[in-house]
Specification:
Layout: E1 5-10, H1 16-23, E2 28-34, H2 38-48, E3 72-75, H3 96-108, E4 112-118, H4 127-138, E5 141-148, E6 161-168, H5 188-191, E7 204-205, E8 220-221, H6 233-237, E9 245-248, E10 251-253, H7 257-263, H8 273-276, H9 282-290, H10 295-303, H11 307-320, H12 325-332, H13 335-341, H14 346-349, E11 366-369, E12 375-380, H15 418-431, H16 433-454, E13 457-461, H17 476-482, E14 486-493, E15 507-512, H18 519-528, E16 532-537, H19 539-546, E17 552-554, E18 569-573, H20 589-600
Parallel strand pairs: 1-2, 1-3, 3-4, 8-9, 12-13, 13-14, 14-15, 15-16, 16-18, 17-18
Antiparallel strand pairs: 4-6, 5-6, 7-10, 9-10, 11-12
Helix pairs in contact: 1-10, 2-9, 11-16, 13-15, 15-16, 19-20
Length: about 600
């Protein structure tokens, strides 16, 4: 089952968004990027170790090329048309990449999106164009807009940006967090490299190449500086007066790569990246970093992403795809379900006296060796048998004399809260079947995963003390096929040959012979269909029956019926109250002989 977010990065550059997700400690896997600059991808690889599959130019991406079921998209469409460094044409410019991003969002509808741009995109002259851009998205998403400058929260870097936090309307909503300022605001001396190596890390720049604005007071910085404006190769070439340059031996220099990472709020980063990494030039690093996200600030935005609630919801929706909702609807519409709901909430039934959520699966497990070296681990669920749960519930519609000899009359089944627990779980199934089945499948998935990691398999017995038609409510075949480590369901049943019409291959049933007149013909039908049949005998009669020829199995050696050969007759010794019973539920050895002859007839 999915335990981390699936991420796609558009306009990915050097992957600042991935670094921010990691810094926010949000478990994720970046499945694809979209980037047209090879130099930026070289920096991406140097920072992250590898580049996910690159979808290339966003204007040429077909929605079918984007990995399916992506949970979160990130992207900062080109900002030059809004930036004051550009012509500020805004939405009057050719915004093909930005519009392509919008189209892909509408086509693919990821759960969450974080889109970034320059602060100028919120200027009044761009308002009509921005509304026209966002309105089609608002049909599917709730959008929060955050405008902020990291410098206002204690970081050195001063660069106002706008973030659009988008949450699809059917998922837990992502609310903008309250940003926590740094405990101690940064100054340049905190991050400055003591002995920068000329030629390896930095570029020494003569004063005449830099545009100067002494009124701003931060174009030429020393160790006491508290603000650092933007920088990139273009800043130098354009002599931008808003650039910041550390003082260096009578001239100025660009920041080192280590300094740059700290300027952008990285807590962890590859030291001396340019010096150590082939394929990353100084210019490619600064060009990519100059356009990157501020990781420190954006990681705080990610910190409020409700990913745990979302993954839980996604898991529940996935599990519910294996529930037969038609059968559940019929159950919900019945008198029994309505009457229980009028008295109990789900929490009333599924919360222990200690206040903890109640599990459906018994904690005891059993392991059986398989011929291929694997083990089959089994667990099960114990509900109230027959009419024990009240509310006119009968979980064993064909029960008879066996009710007096049921497992609930022996051992731990009669101690402590065992009875009230069985009853509460049974009422929960009939009153709240969707929640019940979702939890049941979830517990099976979790245990199957543990078995799979050990190299084993897991099987589940849902009717430990009941006889419910689980194949009506669970799409067993598709569930077993989808879950690693899960090998299927198995149960005993007293329901006759009519049940054979709808038993899926992944459900191993063993018919339990009883005292009813039609039990013999039902047993023969099950055997002929390749299922097992269980018969209870007193010990002396069991020993006689074991000597008969036929597909006979000693059922007291193992309770794992799926390992029996097809069409097995399983002999069980009478136990507990059954040892002294004179009921026709307990069969003589002659009955076994009759079964063998009946199948061979």
């Amino acid at each position: 089952m999915q335990n981390q977010l699936r991420h796609a990065s558009f306009f990915s550059g050097l992957g600042g968004c991935s670094s921010a997700l990691k810094q926010a400690k949000i478990p994720h896997t970046t499945l694809s990027v979209s980037e047209i600059e090879d130099l930026a991808l070289n920096v991406y690889k140097a920072i992250h170790g590898e580049v996910p599959p690159n979808l290339g130019d966003i204007t040429n991406i077909d929605p079918s090329e984007v990995p399916t079921d992506i949970d979160i998209w990130t992207g900062g469409p080109p900002c030059q048309d809004f930036s004051t460094l550009g012509q500020s044409l805004g939405f009057a410019a050719d915004l093909s990449p930005m519009m392509a991003f919008q189209d892909l969002i509408i086509d693919c509808k990821p759960a969450y999106i974080l889109m970034e741009n320059v602060g100028a995109i919120l200027w009044a002259k761009h308002s009509v164009g921005l509304n026209n851009y966002l309105n089609p998205l608002k049909e599917f998403y709730n959008i929060e807009i955050v405008k902020a400058n990291p410098h206002d929260f204690g970081w050195l870097q001063s660069r106002t940006r706008v973030w659009f936090l988008m949450s699809r309307k059917d998922v837990p909503q992502w609310k903008a967090p309250k940003i926590t300022p740094l405990a101690k605001p940064q100054i340049w001396g905190d991050i400055a490299t003591k002995n920068p190596r000329i030629g390896s890390f930095i570029e020494v720049i003569s004063d005449h190449r830099i545009g100067k604005d002494k009124d701003k007071g931060n174009w030429s910085i020393d160790h006491t500086a508290t603000k650092f404006n933007c920088f990139c190769r273009r800043t130098v070439d354009s002599r931008c007066s808003r650039g910041s340059w550390p003082q260096y031996k009578g001239h100025h220099r660009s920041p080192t790569d280590n300094e740059t990472f700290e300027l952008f709020g990285y807590l962890k980063y590859p030291k001396n990246l340019i010096l150590k990494t082939k394929g990353v030039s100084r210019s490619s690093f600064y060009s990519s970093m100059g356009n990157s996200w501020h990781v420190g600030y954006s990681s705080q935005l990610f910190s409020s992403l409700p990913y745990k609630e979302y993954l839980q919801l996604k898991r529940e929706r996935y599990l519910q795809s294996f529930i037969n909702m038609d059968s559940v609807s019929r159950l919900l519409g019945g008198k029994i379900s309505k009457s229980i709901r009028s008295v109990y909430q789900w929490e009333d039934l599924m919360t222990t006296k200690a206040g903890n959520p109640r599990k459906l699966t018994a904690t005891t497990s059993h392991k059986f060796d398989m011929r291929n070296g694997q083990q089959i681990e089994t667990m099960g669920m114990y509900l109230a048998p027959s009419t024990e749960a009240g509310f006119k519930i009968n979980t064993c519609s064909n029960s008879g004399d066996c009710a007096e000899m049921c497992l609930i009359t022996t051992g731990q089944m009669v101690t402590g809260f065992a009875g009230s627990t069985r009853i509460a779980k049974t009422r929960a199934f009939y009153a709240y079947p969707i929640q019940f089945l979702t939890q049941l499948l979830s517990e099976i998935v979790d245990e199957s995963g543990r078995a799979h990691r050990r190299g084993d398999q897991f099987q589940y017995r849902a009717n430990g003390t009941s006889d419910i038609f689980w194949e009506r409510y669970i799409k067993m075949e598709s569930f077993v096929a989808a879950i690693d480590g899960f090998d299927g369901f198995y149960d005993y049943t007293k329901n006759g040959k009519r049940r054979l019409k709808n038993i899926p291959p992944s459900y191993h049933l063993t018919f339990s012979v009883d005292e009813k007149p039609n039990s013999f013909s039902n047993a023969v039908a099950y055997l002929e269909a390749g299922y097992s049949v269980a018969v209870v005998l007193h010990e002396s009669e069991k020993q006689l029956a074991l000597k008969l020829d036929g597909p006979i199995v000693d059922g007291d050696k193992s309770d794992h019926r799926p390992q029996d050969p097809k069409g097995s007759i399983v002999l069980l010794r009478s136990k507990g109250k059954a040892r002294k019973s004179q009921s026709n539920f307990i069969k003589p050895s002659s009955f076994i002989l009759g079964l063998v002859e009946g199948v061979n007839a």
